[in-house]
Amino acid sequence: MKSNLSDQIWGGISYELIAYSDAPRIGLRPALFGKWTIIRWFTPPWQHNNAVAASNFGAKPTAQQVLATLQKNFRTVTAFHVVMKTDNLGTATGNNQIQIRTADGDVLMPDKVKAQANVLLSGQAVTINLISIGDTQYITDPITGQWRVVKGVLNASMLTNPDTGIISLATKLQKLTGPTADTVNGTPCWRVDGLLDAKYLAFLTGGGVPAGTMLQTSVCAGKADALLYELKVTGQATKSDTPQTTRTFEISNYNENISIKAPQI
Predict the structure, then answer these.
(1) Domains and CATH numbers, the chain
(2) Which of 100, 103, 192, 220 could share a disulfide with 84, CB 3.0–4.6 Å?
(3) Which backbone phi and psi does 160 adopt, to 5 degrees?
């Protein structure tokens, strides 16, 4: 016999926490667009073999040139490392809601992701490992640490598709300003600011905010390669957010040599 303890979300990934009355354990079951938020992901370091396209920006590009070239050059990418950080989260609703404060993982085109998350569940820190290969995902139980095969947990296209994923957000900005010269983790880049309709982030957050809600958004594209190095979104993208909630995505280690394989079950 089982009873649902929570139905939570981490960006477009959601789960149900299940309590089993016939065994002293809990598990995770995926359910699309529930209500989780994350604390931390880690992955081991990888060897690098960076080969990227030239930016062709010139001395001072326009904001439109920066964003268009960013999306174009991303199509040449074979792998990258992504770190997500969330600041100024609002008060979580529900007794068992998980809050994701940072995330760290590696992505191998076209459809593989490997990550590890430290998650705060009802005030308790637990670790979850995740591997996504095609339409099959593997996740570790936060209590036992054992791998389980699940479906529908992570749509890798939200990280890999330049037309519909994280990268595509840069091309949906309104009221552009910039670019201005900046650096992200030592990489010189052009920063473009603008407004993003919260509906475009719903695939990650689950949405739930009034139509027309706009988010302050900043994009930084490498001067040398026109690849995305930082995307920062501030505002209420989901019900539990505050106007000061900020989600920052830092991308690095483009085209590194990585291997993502299914775990042994």
Answers:
(1) 2-252 (2.50.20.20)
(2) 103
(3) -105, -25
